[in-house]
Task: inverse folding
């Protein structure tokens, strides 16, 4: 019998060695994202060593990563049934799976079980704090975060930040700013301190947003080396048809917006107000514009879906004469997605009534989507978008369609709290057959716009920005070998903005 056992030993050692090779293959596949390959290797390892709980633990991790949550929970529960203390880390994975499923009470219940195995583990209370925050039991969340800090002082900075986030959710903005400031003071150089700085700005902005009255304004000085012929196109109130004066001028713009929020809750806000806009040119005074724009809006949202509905009625005077009255309805839908993505879908309808007895009345509809991505560690914010629009004029020859493609990148610059932004827009417009444009066929324009800006906050109220844009337009129309709608223009601007 002893001899038979000795003969078996090499086989047992070989089986254990093969199981370990399979386990290593499974872990490497899991870490590289080859999840099905990881499952195959880990299951083969478990067949050779069915009592090895580490093998089973990694199988549960793989199931969880793949979104096969019930299978993951089953694996982890079998592990803690056998070794609730030695493999207490499996409890944390069960809690994490329940959190992914948004079953936060089950997360809390699971972490309470872990508490019985080691009540001095700070991680338990940190995770419970997150779960309590999700179910809006904010006092218990703060209590749990503080207990984690007391048990493990190395969590001090993270706990201060988390408590600040809880206060932010409850709209205790002064307390939130106090805790974010404490988080920064622990170690100003780490990434969480950067998050806290942004959170302070968010808290201040949210505090302003809860005021019943709102008021903002901007004043700009700009130089344009090729002013467009039509004043409302020059000021981007209506879409440009591509006709320039070949003249340069400097101008100033003033924009003031204010109003009252008669409904101002966390998840819904409604208000009405008035905007005033003016553009004044030094020499080309026929391009001066004055606008009065009453507005009504409704904001509503629950994470991750948000909506804004706005109605504007605007009246514009251009060159000292009545020019346009316009009604506009603009719904904007925002979806905050996973992986730092956010999508904005904008619809717009405009009903334009021209008051000059020359321009044809028109209605325009457009739909656009812009997707934003946040690269927080690099402090970069790329975006890309597409927009389609169609304007139907009462006189059909003035109708047109267009589409735009947008790419942009925002960045937090390393100097004095400045932020930069660059964008490139391509627009293609198709105009109806119009003898004013072309006698041979429909007119098509290609427009390219490069925009750059750098902004810097001067205080909680004021911000300074420098901007530059380059526009190039050309068409398929030729008159005596010359494209009459081809032009280039550069606009340089300096703007001071205020939000009270």
Result:
């Amino acid at each position: 019998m002893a001899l038979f056992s000795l003969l078996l030993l090499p086989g047992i050692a070989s089986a254990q060695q093969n199981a370990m090779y399979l386990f290593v293959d499974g872990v490497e596949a899991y870490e590289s994202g080859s999840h099905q390959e990881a499952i195959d290797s880990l299951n083969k390892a478990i067949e050779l060593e069915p009592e090895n709980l580490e093998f089973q633990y990694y199988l549960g991790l793989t199931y969880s990563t793949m979104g096969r949550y019930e299978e993951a929970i089953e694996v982890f529960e079998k592990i803690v049934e056998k070794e609730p203390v030695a493999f207490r880390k499996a409890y944390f994975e069960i809690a994490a799976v329940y959190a992914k499923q948004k079953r936060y009470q089950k997360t809390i219940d699971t972490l309470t079980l872990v508490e019985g195995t080691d009540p001095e583990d700070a991680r338990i209370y940190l995770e419970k704090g997150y779960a309590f925050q999700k179910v809006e039991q904010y006092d218990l969340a703060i209590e749990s975060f503080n207990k984690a800090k007391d048990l493990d002082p190395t969590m001090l900075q993270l706990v201060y930040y988390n408590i600040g986030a809880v206060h932010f959710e409850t709209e205790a903005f002064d307390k939130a700013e106090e805790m974010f400031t404490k988080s920064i003071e622990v170690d100003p150089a780490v990434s969480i301190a950067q998050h806290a700085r942004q959170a302070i700005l968010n808290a201040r902005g949210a505090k302003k947003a809860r005021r019943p009255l709102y008021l903002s304004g901007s004043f700009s000085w700009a130089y344009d080396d090729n002013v467009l012929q039509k004043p409302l196109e020059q000021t981007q109130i209506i879409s440009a048809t591509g006709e320039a004066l070949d003249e340069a001028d400097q101008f100033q713009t003033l924009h003031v917006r204010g109003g009252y929020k008669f409904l101002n809750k966390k998840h819904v806000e409604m208000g009405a107000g008035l905007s005033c806009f003016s553009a004044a040119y030094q020499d080309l005074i026929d391009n001066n514009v004055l606008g009065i724009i009453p507005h009504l809006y409704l904001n509503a949202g629950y994470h991750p879906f948000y909506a804004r509905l706005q109605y504007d009625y605007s009246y514009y005077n251009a060159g000292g004469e009545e020019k346009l009255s316009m009604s506009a309805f603009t719904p904007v839908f925002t979806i905050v997605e996973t992986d730092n993505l956010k999508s904005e879908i904008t619809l717009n309808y405009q009903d334009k009534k021209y008051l000059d007895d020359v321009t044809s009345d028109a209605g325009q509809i457009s739909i656009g989507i812009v997707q934003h991505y946040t690269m927080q560690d690099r402090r970069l914010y790329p975006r890309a978008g597409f927009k389609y629009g169609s304007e139907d004029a009462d006189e059909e020859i003035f109708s047109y369609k267009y589409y735009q493609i947008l790419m942009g990148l925002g960045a937090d610059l390393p100097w004095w709290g400045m932020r930069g932004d660059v964008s490139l827009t391509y627009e293609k417009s198709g105009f109806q057959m119009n003898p004013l444009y072309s006698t041979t066929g429909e007119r098509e324009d290609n427009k390219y716009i490069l925009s750059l800006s750098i902004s810097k906050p001067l205080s909680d109220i004021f911000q300074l920005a420098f901007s530059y844009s380059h526009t190039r337009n050309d068409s398929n129309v030729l008159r005596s070998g010359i494209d009459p709608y081809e032009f280039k223009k550069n606009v340089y601007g300096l703007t001071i903005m205020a939000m009270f």
